[in-house]
Amino acid sequence: MKRELAIEFSRVTEAAALAGYKWLGRGDKNTADGAAVNAMRIMLNLVNIDGTIVIGEGEIDEAPMLYIGEKVGTGKGDAVDIAVDPIEGTRMTAMGVPTPRR
């Protein structure tokens, strides 16, 4: 992966994490997930890629965004297949439960 894309994808991940964090412990997993999905989608659409979601959020949570086949990015740059999961553990986030150590 090009260094520039690695940095851009870290920004995408950071935006999703910060958006979801605002809902930590508030008991509303759908709102937490929705905030993270929205932030991730906004940031993905700023990246200079011709991206396609190949593993998405929509099928799991019936979300209207980040579904399989959705185009993301500016449409310029490298063609990229993307797998997304804006929040790993939406219920744990909503309940404020720490992720178990493996």
TrEMBL record:
PANTHER family: FRUCTOSE-1,6-BISPHOSPHATASE 1 CLASS 2-RELATED, FRUCTOSE-1,6-BISPHOSPHATASE CLASS 2. GO terms for biological process: fructose 1,6-bisphosphate metabolic process; gluconeogenesis; glycerol metabolic process. It comes from the Bacteria. InterPro entries: FBPase_class-2/SBPase. The keyword Iron does not apply. GO terms for cellular component: cytosol. It catalyses: beta-D-fructose 1,6-bisphosphate + H2O = beta-D-fructose 6-phosphate + phosphate. This is fructose-bisphosphatase. It comes from Klebsiella pneumoniae. It holds the Pfam family FBPase_glpX. Belongs to the FBPase class 2 family. Keywords: Carbohydrate metabolism, Hydrolase, Manganese, Metal-binding. It is an enzyme of class 3 (hydrolase). Its EC number is 3.1.3.11. One of its GO terms (molecular function) is fructose 1,6-bisphosphate 1-phosphatase activity.
